[in-house]
C-alpha cells in the first residue's frame, strides 16, 4: 500500500472511531435520562396512603345538600353506613332481617345503635 492509501484508510478509521464515540456518548446520556426517569417514577407513590384509605369511605357517602332545617341527618346516615360496614356477615344478616322493610339511611344513628343493642343483647 502506498502512503496516500494508508493515509486515506487511517482517516476513514479515525472518522469511524469518532462516530462510535459520539454514539457511545449519546447512549450514555439516554441511559442516564432513563435512570433518572425510573428514580422519579418509583420515588413517589401513585396514591398517597391516606387518600387510598379515604377513597372507599368517600364512595359510601351520599351527596351533601345543605338544608338549614335538617338536624345533622347526613352525618347520621354516614355513621349508620360506617357502623354497618363493621358488622360481620352473620350480624349484618340478623340486622337486615330485623329491619327488612327499612333502608339503613332511614334510621338515625341513635335509633340504629338502639336496634343493634336490642338485636345482639339477647
From TrEMBL:
InterPro entries tied to this protein: DUF7083 (IPR055510)
By its UniProt entry, which Pfam families does this protein fall under?
A: DUF7083 (PF23309)
The DUF7083 domain covers which part of the protein?
74-121
- The protein depicted here goes by the name DUF7083 domain-containing protein
Q: Which organism is it from?
A: Culex quinquefasciatus
Gene it is expressed from: 6039293
Amino acid at each position: 500500500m502506498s502512503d496516500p492509501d494508508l493515509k486515506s484508510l487511517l482517516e476513514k478509521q479515525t472518522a469511524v472511531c469518532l462516530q462510535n464515540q459520539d454514539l457511545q456518548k449519546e447512549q450514555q446520556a439516554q441511559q442516564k435520562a432513563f435512570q433518572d426517569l425510573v428514580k422519579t417514577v418509583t420515588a413517589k407513590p401513585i396514591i398517597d396512603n391516606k387518600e387510598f384509605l379515604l377513597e372507599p369511605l368517600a364512595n359510601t357517602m351520599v351527596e351533601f345538600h345543605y338544608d338549614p332545617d335538617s338536624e345533622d341527618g347526613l352525618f347520621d346516615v354516614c355513621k349508620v353506613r360506617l357502623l354497618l360496614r363493621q358488622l360481620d356477615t352473620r350480624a349484618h344478616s340478623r340486622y337486615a332481617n330485623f329491619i327488612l322493610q327499612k333502608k339503613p339511611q332511614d334510621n338515625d344513628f341513635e335509633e340504629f345503635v338502639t336496634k343493634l343493642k336490642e338485636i345482639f343483647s339477647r
